[in-house]
Amino acid sequence: MALTDHAQVRPALEIGDLAGNRRRRRREGRIRLFFLAAALTSLVISALIVGSLAVEAGRFLVGVDPSALWTTGWFPREGFFDIKTLLVATLIVTSVAMVVAGPIGFATAVYLSEYAGARTRRILKPVLETLAGVPSVVLGFFALTWISPHIVQGIRPAAPLSNLASAGLGVAILTIPLVASVSEDAMSSVPRALREASAGLGARRMTTSLRVVVPAAVSGLVAAAILATSRAIGETMVVLIAGGADQAQFTASPFQPSLTMTAAMASLAGGSDAVVGQGNAYQSLFFVGLLLFLITLGLNIVANRIVRRVRQKY
Are 98 and 168 spatial neighbours (Cβ–Cβ below 8 Å)? Predict the structure, then answer.
């Protein structure tokens, strides 16, 4: 009888009681709106940037003679906008950078993840982060004053002091920490049970690293490579200082000076009074910027598809 009376006194639990305190719900709703506004703001800013590039690039294409887009060099103040000069120079610098930074960065990541002890990792990690924090303008002068005369001209004595090879090596120094850091994080996320199973089967550490850990972390390694490639394509100060002048003759040799897409934009827009000459010189900045955006967007799309295809879940 006492139990029955107690059950009758207890208030019934309703759905509304599970919703929580009204003040807390209002506060969480305001926080949610704040984060939504931040996300929408970033989208709006991105859309405005792309829109401004597209509008001015369209004006450039309408106002320029198509033959001026395929000439012998990039001379925007004289009305010659040879796109292949910039594309080939960008490809050369990026290729040189990735040929150097890719193997060194991946090898560094394998060592940090699979071989280095805790004390060694604590020392090398900050060193890599310090290297990543070196200003690009400093590396540009280093590439011009040391890499070019001691390395590039040692390989090709007739090469001028400013050349694409020295710019590519300077960009490689910037890119190595990025490749190593992202790759090391991907390898460290591989479950330790896979390493222990491989060791239990009698595999050596090198075999475990290359045939177990690397395939398991391949999605992260691909992401690191694509991210580093995008970083190399978008680098400006190193290639502007070490790569050449403000105008460029077409060349496919890494031992000659030229301009990448980013360096061409920086050299032409060095000041408000610098964009002079033919009427389309100013609009050419937006055209090159739009091409650069499309290239990096394409790389990101390809990277996402590759990562989804090869990703392994544990």
Answer: no
> What CATH code is assigned to 66-310?
1.10.3720.10
Report pTM.
0.84
Q: Is 75 helix (H, G, I), strand (E, B) or coil?
A: strand
Torsions phi, psi for 74 (to 5 deg): -100, 100
- Residue 243: exposure state from Cβ atoms within 10 A (0-12, 13-18, ≥19): buried
pLDDT in tens, 126-150: 888 888 888 889 999 999 999 999 9
3-class secondary-structure state, position 73:
strand
E strands, 192-288, where? 248-249
3-state secondary structure at position 314: coil
Alpha-helix residue ranges (DSSP H) falling in 64-142: 83-110, 118-132, 136-142
> What tens digit of pLDDT does each residue of 160-214 get?
999 999 999 999 999 999 999 889 888 988 888 888 888 888 888 888 888 888 8
